[in-house]
Structure formats: C-alpha cells, structure tokens
Amino acid sequence: MGQALRALHPAEPCGDQIGCWRTADGWRLALADGLGHGYEAHHAATAAMQRLATTAASASLASIFADCDQQLLHTRGVALAVVDLSLATAHCQHAAVGNVRTLLIRDGIVSRLGSARGIVGAGFRGLHPECVAIHPGDWLVLFSDGIRENVDIVAALAQQTPSDALAARLLAQWADARDDASLLLYRH
Ligand SMILES: [Mn+2]
User: Fold this and answer.
1) What is the 3-state secondary structure (H, E, C) of 19-78?
2) Which among 10, 19, 45, 138 could disulfide-bond with 49, CB atoms 3.0 to 4.6 Å apart, if both were Cys?
C-alpha cells in the first residue's frame, strides 16, 4: 500500500482525501475529491472518509454511496471511489461516482473500472458496483483528476513495490498545477 496527497496551495488543506481500512477479511480503500479545492473541498472529502470509516464493511456499496450522498448534502460534495477487497475470495467490489479513476493493472494491461455520473452529496445516477477478481501481483491504482490522464502508469509501476514514498514521487511527477491531487497504490 502507498498513498500521497498534495494540496494545490500549500497553505490550504487538501481537498482530496484517501482512506485505507482493514476489514474482517481484507481492505477497504477509498479516494474522495471534494469539488474545487481549499477548506470547503477538504471538509466534504473528510466527511466522506469519516462516514466510510464507520460504515460496516458488510454493507453493500450501493447502500454506502446512498448513505454518503445523504450525509454530504450540506457540503460541496465529492467524487468518490470505494474498493472493498476480500482476501478470502480474492475479489473486490468497486463503485465510483464522478471524476475519479480506479485502474486494475494485471501483467501490464490496464483495465479502467467504471464511474457513475454525478456528485456524492448532490445526487448521482447509474451507480454500477462491479465485482472483479484480483490475482497475485495485480495493482489497484486510485487517483483524482489532479493527475494528468496521459501518464505511463504501467511503466512507472514496473519492478516496484507500493509505498508512501513511491506514491509521493509519482504524484510529484504527475500532479496537475491546477488542482489538488491524490494517488493510492495497492499491490495484491
Ligand atoms: Mn479534482
């Protein structure tokens, strides 16, 4: 596991937030991008993480997203991706709303998991939770739209193991100069 956040303006809190929690049989990973940047974005993203931290891992992603949508009604709202990984079944459940990315990288092949249209906290449509198998050596890579779309993630992760230092180094290379940025790396 590795993670990094970078606020657009060093004097402001980061409007992107990452969560990693150990669950009964695996991990919950989440990345939220509060709309815009600065204090209001930070507040919304932090509220999403607090909600996810206290929601049972057994709850379905559909109910978790519906709950977060209600809880964030009075915030700016967030784009949000959540992965619930079961080590027992070697599968993960994934769902996302808005402009955040989740990639599954296997043997150098990138699969992009789906994200519904909308904003958590202001409504969304077409949430599509997916269940995908995870194999030894697979990477899950979550990042916000503060990272440029055209970066060569496969090459950057070759021969690497995930760490906060690696995430920080890649974020420094890839972060856009116009937004907060965040990157979460997991290797199975
Ligand atoms: Mn953003």
Assistant:
1) EEEEECCEEEEEEEEECCCCHHHHHHHHHHHHHHHCCCCCCCHHHHHHHHHHHCCCCCCE
2) 19
pLDDT score at 26: 95
Residues with CB under 5 A from ligand 1 (ion): 33, 144-146, 179
Spacing, Cα 34 to ligand 1 middle (Å): 7
Residues in the chain with pLDDT < 50? none
Give the Å distance between the CA of 53 and the centre of ligand 1.
22
Amino acid identity, position 151: V
Domain 2-187, CATH class in plain words: alpha beta
Predicted model pTM: 0.97
Q: Where are the domains of the chain?
A: 2-187
